[in-house]
Structure formats: structure tokens, C-alpha cells
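Entry 14. Two folds queued back to back today. First construct below, sequence then C-alpha cells.
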Amino acid sequence: MVKLVVGVLFLGLVFQLVVSSVDIDSLNIWPMPHSVSYGHQVLYMSKDFELRTEGSKYPDESGILKDGFSRFLYVIRASHVVDGNVSDSQQSLVLQGINVLISSVDDELQYGIDESYKLSIASSGDPVYAHLETFSQLCQFNFHTRLIEVRQTPWDISDQPRFPYRGLLIDTSRHYLPLPIIKKVVDSMTYTKLNVLHWHIVDSQSFPLEIPSYPNLWNGAYSIPERYTMADAAEVVRQVISAFFCRLNGYMIPYLCFIHFLYSKVKPELSSNHFSFCSYAQRRGINVLAEIDVPGHAQSWGTGYPTLWPSQDCQQPLDVSNEFTFQVIDGILSDLSKVFKFKYVHLGGDEVNTRENCFDGDYLKAIFTYPQNWLTLVFRLQKQGMNASQGYEYFVLRAQEIALSHGYECINWEETFRTFGDKLKLKTVVHNWYALKILMPSNLISLFVTYQCGLEKRWCRLDVGVAAQVVAAGLRCVVSRQDKWYLDHLDTFWPEFYSYEPLTNITDPKQQELVIGGEVCMWGETVDGSDIEQTIWPRAAAAAERLWTPYEKLAKDPAQVIGRLTQFRCLLNQRGVAAAPLTGYGRGAPREPDWIPKRFCWMEEELGSGNGSGSSHSVLLLLI
């Protein structure tokens, strides 16, 4: 694996006191780190701030260092032209560059690696451990000097994520998202330290992804241009993984900079472009989770292969009685495994209402509603000794077996646990989404929310979520409570995203560890490339801090963080991300001319111009 030793070089280091101490809640870092201390001094970044590899055992053959360093410089210089000059008396305060020592050729970075880091900018020659996304947020443009400043030094930050899984779902079935839009979403995720892009690729409405093993599947796309080749998918995945800061054998890997590059072994018949979307994500420290939702939400599959439908009269769920269905699933997962290298695959399994669809075992209803289906699916299920509920269970468990055979661990939506949780594979991760505090018969639930509680007529209690039950059963869980973390709910405001606690009702420490994280969900019914960014941001950033920052460091009242989040929203805008205002509904337009209270901002009038003198000599080392 790559081991990097990075030095931030500057000459003649003497600091000047320019501000008084400020409260940590006013620091403009998002998400808030685990531990922060800081001073009152200012350094300048040289306009020729450079990357060096002096002393390295290996060259930067892949160009990943140069590429990452360019991204780092871009985000700190994107908003303004840096055209100031440092006076002779201030040369001692200038940061000259970064030196990177590459000590290994192994550059794989996978989910679950230690992401802890230290960032220190001191007035001595002591080593500095740094996270470059955090570092980039400390770099500010000074309108007096026209230079980039690193303010409030010396800094000493120790940090690590609270949860290993910090996700964002995008949905390309309900509305197609062009590749450049997805890449912009990926870039913005790195700014908040989210690390899993959950790609809900296909659904009932469309099947836009190329599957070489079954090439007619993407006949279910909306149109020929609204498709993704497997090479497109590979590009997204492979570049996203190297922007995050991780520790490998004691060395630190920073977000946004030269880091790890995972060379996906994409077979030539799938892609001649090995620098492909999966690659875009991997180079930025993000794992891409592919979702193929079965057996429901799959009507589009039958456009290319009609025999996957139980009948022409009933086109979903997929035909559990047809062996060809599982051959197609096997082919899809085989092709995905060549590109999507994340340890997990999402198999869906939600909203399979066995009362109202083709699994129905009611003879009279089947005869009058789905006559062809009754002659096919119901008969075949009964011949195999299964009723509708058993057919649903059989389908999910067999799909899990296929995924395991391709090296994946499975994530399924919570209905699978509620219906047959004791049968799920032990490696299953249950994805919680539902939350409804009512008590009603299961058939009414089916009518109103298409929720599967089982074939028997019984009462079901839907409460704050299934997570506590999942971890009590010894399974892992990802939390995405729909009334708190669904971004398509435009009337869910950012304070609710910030305040929702994934460990609600889970008090046992061992069970808490089984909650591997959470995910905000950008379902695609009402978003496309024109409005997705402002619908995601800044509300997703509020949840991102909940997933990264230690519980005891989180604000108990969201009003305490409005200053930092307002400033972070402005930072997103400066970096080209169309983040919406904090006020009003999700993706709402600004209500008045823009303003930011001074107490919410870095203000050079408060910090001063950073004049100073001196002639000491220091080197800051950044171990990666």
C-alpha cells in the first residue's frame, strides 16, 4: 500500500497574535472534528505552493499524487484570483509546499480502513499529521493581501469518524442523471466526509445500465441516450476512493490529495477504458454501493426479457417460479462484481406486497384479476410447495446466495427482516427506512403504504424503526429513517437531519457497534440534473456531521450550529456546488438578498492582515 510522508515547508516561522480566542462552536470546520485546539496566528500559502516527492522510494507512475494535489489546490483557489504578494518582512510566514515520500507501490484502499487522522500546524519542527479536506477548510482568502491564509495557527486536531458507513443514495431509475452530474455529487460528498455512494441504478421505471451478460436488459431505459455503459460505471467507481484520509500500518491517507488508487480489474470485454465512474469515486475516497432491487421494483427488466414477468397481465414482481429469473440475477451480479469492488451489494427486497400482486394465492381473485398469471405463477408456486409469502422468502434468500457466490455481502431493505428475519444470512446488513407510529391491520397498511407484514391477517405496529430489533437479533444495520433522512421530503428541514440519532433505543454497547452507520436518501421521483444538488445540500451535510462527529461533541440544539452550517453552505457555493439556503423547504430559492452575519464568518477585519517578522526555520511533516 502507498505510504506517504508529506512535509509542509515554510521558511523563517514567526507568528503574530492577531485574534483573541473564539468559542469552538464558531470554528468554520464541517463536520466538527473529535478534538480541536488552535491559536491566534496567521500563515500564508505561497502562490507557487508545490508538490515534491524528494526521498521517495517509488515514482508517482499513476499520476495520482499530481492529480490529487491539483484537486486540493483547485478547491482552495476556486473562488478568487490569488494575485497578492508577500512583503519581504513576511517571507518567514510563507508555506512553500508539500513533500510526499512514497514508500510502497501497493495503493489499495478499502472500506473499513482506519480513517483517524491528526492535523497539526505548529511553530516548531515537530511532525504534523494532516487531513487535507479539513486543512482546505482552514485556508481562507484575505481580501486585503489577496493571498490564501491559514488562520488561527497553531492547530492541533485529532479526529476519527463515529460510524464507518456514511452514505448518500442517488436514484437514476426515476430520473436519469448524466455522468457529469453524478461526478459533481461525488465531489461534494468528499467535502462532508461521506464515504458511500449508494447507487440505486434500476427500478420499475427504467433499467439504464448495460449488463453484458444479458444485453437486452437496458432496453428498459427511457431512451437510448439515457443509459450507462459498464465503462461509465467503472469510471465512477474507481476514481472515488482516494480522497479520504485513512491510516494504513501507521501511515495516514488524506482526503482530497494524492492518496490511494484502486486499479479495478475490469475485463477487456467490459471496458477498454480502465480509468473509468467507479474510478472517479475511488480516487475520492468513496465506495460505490450498487443496488439491484429484487423481486419488486423490477418491471423494467421485462422490457428486454418478457419471460421475467409472471405474465403480460402482471409485470412485477419478478417471476420466482422461473429458473431464468435467477440466471439473469446471477449474470447481473457477475458483471457488477468486475466493476463494483465495494464489499457490499444492495439487493433491495422492499415493498413486495404479496396480497396485491402476482404472488397472490387467492384462486378467485387470481382468476378474475390475473387469469394468465393464475395459470402460470400460482400453479407453479403451489407445485413447488410454496405460498406467496414463502415465495417471497425463497426469492430473497436465493438472491443472497447468488451474491455471496460472487464475493459480496448483502444489504436488504427492512421488510426482509420483518417478514423472515431469522432466515436471513448472518452477513446480511438490514437497511432501515420505515417509521410510522401507528397500530393498524396489515391489510390496511398494504393499501396505504404497500408494506409487507406477512400473509396472515394480523395487526402490525410500525414505530420509530426496526434498527433496535435488528441489532438485538445479532445482525448489522444501516439507518435511513424516511421521516428524518429522506431528501425528497422537502418539508423535512435541516435541523431534523441534524438531530436524528441513529442509535435511538439502542443502549447496549455491543449492539450499538452493529449499527455500522446511516444514509440520507435522494429518491429520484422529483429530481433530475437541474435540481439535485440544491435538494441534497446543505441538508445532507447536517446528517453527515451526525455520522462523523462523536456524540458528545454534537450540538444538543441545532441552533448552535447554524453559523457553521451557514458558512459551510457558502463554502459549497464557492466550490461550485448549488447548495440551497438553510431557510425554507428543501431546494427552496433564496428569500432575500444574501447575507451572512459577521459572527458566522471568517472576517479578515477580525483576523487582521497577518503582518509579522522573524527568521526562525521550521518544517512541518505530514505523515500519510
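Second construct, same run, same settings:
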Amino acid sequence: VLHTPEDVLLAVKDSALMSIPKGYPGTPKGYVLPITQNPDLLWPGWETFDVKRNGFSEVKINVRDVKGPGKVHLFTQNSFADTKALLDGGSTALPGTITVKEPSHVHANWVFTKPGRYEMTVDATSVRYGKTVRTATHAYTWAVGSKAIAQAKSCTAASDTAATPAADQSAGDTGGAALGGLNTVGTSLDGAPEASGEGAAADGETANGSQDAAEAASGAAAAAKKEVCRPVKIATKKASPASSDGAKRSATPAAKAAAPAGQAASIATEGHFDWGVQLESGKLISALKDDRSAPAKWVNPSSIVMSVGDKANTTAPGGMEFIAKSGAKVWLIGATQVPGVPWLGVNTMHPSIVNGTTGPVQMHLDKVDGPGKMAVFMSGTFGGGVGQRVFDNVGGPTSYTVAANTHAHPNWVFTKPGHYAVTVTQTATTKAGKKVSATGTLHFAVGTDAKAVASSVAATPASADAAPSSDSGKAGDTAQNGDAAQGDSPAYTVVGRTPDGKPCDLNGLPGTGADGQVREATIAARPAKALGCGVALGGFGLLLGASVVARRRHG
């Protein structure tokens, strides 16, 4: 769900307060939102996947001003805990500018040195067709510590508006681009108005007309009544008996074998991927989320070979002796994105899993067929190096629990070059209480010819991505001119409808962590410069400022 930044107050709990080792930003103590996910805390980040496909160059996220009782530090670390500044000029202290050169999905360490209320003024700039484009400026407000959060809750109680939609309004994805909760974005660099109705055009760029100024003004007058755009299945022809229960089925059908026999698997040399599951007709299916296209696709894990080449080659530091001696050559898919290396995470955010299961998903490492050792682990915080171990074939854990509605990135380490086939069984519990399991195999070409590995792997093609099932359309309802249909099938078209049945555009906003499609988007305006009192406490994936800079054009 996307929200205007001014409508959400970001709450940093007392549990984020920790001692910071000497030599790290914010020492000796601060409120830390770590680069790796803690389900109890916010997990802020930014994403620019749509940049290149919409004609933009690199993106500059400009934090123009920070007001608050202390300092705010922002920095990253590699998988072995070496810190690195993210701001231009090498500083870790905000304000400053983050230059995102490649389409990326990024998380970082955030440190607030004192409790209290902080406000950040943010915009973004990029260049398209020789023109510099700048978004509107927005304010991101944080409440750090229990006292500031209590004040925010008091504000919420006094307000008639809520920053987040009711849970039962979601059509399957309550997750952010990175994690469950909210997914906040305020601006767009293609000139499209924001979710709130404000224009963001500059330097000759004009709005695309999805909501004009008059609508924004009328929306501001009725900000307390927020409308949402929900996906609705509309019959395009009489559904066959087999498809009559379509509205109850999962958002994305299972992968179907349609490729010619013997076709090689495809090769991924970079890009964002998540190993997750889908629930289809009561059956669990192992699936790989491929974010290299928009919307993202969920495919059979064996249909893609992860090419882990020279750019993934590094030397093991101390503290990893359970898999490699210090100084030994290893190949690494890290917890942070590296150009030229596939970035592999885990994900329980598919709409069918969010809506159809309860509790976590268990991942069990069944076997690793390959020439060397493999270990998967989370990064430690502040020099910890290796954090929680996920699973490996070196005598460590073989099972890992992925919390509900979660997206996380561990480190994947391989010790020798060659073809690795990693088989994992995932288990979930349906809302009816039934245990369901699925087994999938993911292939890695580590320091070797990926084409040869792909040729040896029979591809299973991508699933036919359909839009999420939601409320069925009203009797007699049909697709209308201007509807942006998604996931058409022979029997149904999925279109956008407001709660009162009016057409709306499902495609007008950037993607989410589930499959790159927005499930429910706020389309009403908010009062200009008004601060909403909605509080986001935990499990929050933040798309900072204008980090998703390009909305897909349609028509």
C-alpha cells in the first residue's frame, strides 16, 4: 500500500536502542534500524527498479534538511561488516545526497543518536532525454523512543483519519517493497501526479493527467475519506465451471510447462530475486520472484540459473571458519546488492501466502549437489560479521523460519567453482490449519560457464502472472473504456474499481514487494502540508522520498 509521506509517522521503538562499537557512526549509543531485517522494527530503504526502462539516468535522492534533537546517520556495510558511507562526499550524517547509479533495491543502517521527533525534507532528481527532472519536496517524520511514539499515538487518537487502510481491504499484499507493513512513496519523476494528487513535474515535464488539480483540491477538502483502488475480476465471457471459483484462487497461477522440450534454463547475471512460495488451489508451490521486469514474475526456481561469476569472487574474512579459512577464495551473493551479481533473498509476501496461510514459512535444506561447500547466513550488526546462520551443508542448521509477510536478504557463500543444485522444501500452514509443503531446486553457476550449466538444466517456464483475486465484480459489471486490465484470462479481466464501483487505475503506482503490482492505492488527495498521525511501528518497508522515480505509462 502506498502512502503520501506526510500521512505516516515512522515510529522507532525503544528496542532499537543499542550500544554502538567504537569506530562506527553514532557511537557510543543510538537507536538503530539495521541493514538486515528485524521484524520488530522498521526496515527503511529505497528502490529505483523502474529507472532505466523509463528513460532516466542515475537518481539523486536529496535529503535537504533534518530537524531533530540529535544526529541521523545513514551507512551500509558489506557482508563482512565493513562500513561504507552512502552519501555523496563520504559523510554518514544526514542531510546529504544519495546517488543511486544502478536500478537498485537498497537497505541501510539508520542511527538516531537521541530520542524525539525528527523531520526530513526530501526530494529526488534525475535526467531524462537531456532534461533534469525534480520531484516535489516531501517531509518524512520519525518518532524515536517510547515518549515520542506515545505522543504520536495521542495524535492518532485525536484524529478521525487513519494513515493505513483496514487489513481486510487489502487484496493480498500488505507488504512493502522490502517487508510487510506499509510502502511509502510520495513522488514520481515521470511527471505523473502523486498518490495524493499533487503534481511532481518540473523543467518542462508535465503531468500525465491521472489526477488533475481540481481533483486534488476537492480531495483535500475531504481528506478524511480516503478512497482506494481495488482489483476486481470482471467476466469477459461466460466462465467455464472449472473457472467459476476463480475469485477464491491465488493471485498467481502455478507455473505451467509450455516451453519446448529440452529448452535450456535462462541465465541471471544480476537483478533482484526472492525464493518464496505460492498457494494454488490448496497446494504449496516453490517459486522464484524475478524483479528484472515490471511487473515482477514468479517462476519455477529451476527455470533460472544464477550466474555467480568474477564480480562475486572475494576472500573470506576471519569469523567464517565454519565454511572457509580467513583469506580463502570464496564466491558471495551478499546481503547488499552488487552490480553484476544476482541478488537473492527470501520472501513470504506473495498475496496467496499472505491471504491463504497463517504463521511463518519453514525452509529446509534437503541437499546441496555441488563441488564445494555452501553456507547461507544473515549479516551481523556493527562488526558482527556472521549473524544468524540460515542453513548450510557444513554441519550447521538445515532449517530456517521465515516470518509471515517478510522479505529478507541473507548471504550465500560457495567455496569452489562449479554447478550447485540447491534443493529446499518449504512448509506453511493454511488458514484451515493444514500443513502444506513444496520442494524446489535452484541452480547456481559458480565461477564457471553459466551457459553450460543452463544447457544441462531443463527449464520450467514462468507462471502466467495474473492479477490478484479480490471481490468479484458486481452482476452485470463489465470492463469500461479507460480500464487498465491486468492478468487477463479467457474468462476474466481484472480492472480497478473504487469501493463505490467507479473505474480507477490499478497501474498508476510503482511496485511492491510481492510481485511488483500495487494491490490497493490511495487515490484521494490530502490537505496541503498537513501531517497525518498514522503510526507505523514495525515491519515497515519504506520507499524513501522519490526513490521509485518512474511510474509506468499506459495507453
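Quick look at the second one. The two ends are 24 Å apart (CA to CA). The longest strand covers residues 116-128.
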